[in-house]
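Pasting as-is:
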Amino acid sequence: MVSDLSSAVLLVIDMQEAFDHPRWGQRNNHEAESNVANLLAEWRRTRRPVIHIHHVNPKPDSLFNGKGVQVKPEAVPVEGEPVLTKNVNSAFIGTDLEERLKLMKASQLIVTGLSTDHCISTTARMAGNLGFDTFVVSDATATFERKGLSGQHYTAEEMHDTALMSLEGEFATIVSTKELIKPKAVS
């Protein structure tokens, strides 16, 4: 059961075109974008705070340079929603995210976006260490397949599940979109 999240801040991390490049390989959870869109719609409808984090890399050969920095259509910020730019995995490093959250008196964070085992995990770990009650939305995050150090293949789903398992209970609580968006009562 999810606690009262009526004032939780929704963090939308790296929902950018760079992650559509084939260089990443196979990806899991192709519903992540629509789940992020559903969460954004719910947060906006209930007037809860949203903060967008975008990755930009100044290296010309980076996927996070040029066209790759464009935001996916499901996660375009609206007027009044802050957009912070980072160039490392953590949304807390090189940004004023922590200061903003403190000014907002935020204590709960909902973490969504890409990719689960990189920027989502790094941000959630730091958030937990900084004392925020952190929730990672399993179906509003996704990642890619990886090749292990000994050449073994790890599927995108294995990478996703392992990253979430490593966060659960220590740094964050893992939840689903359905747990966060309650059906509206019919009158």
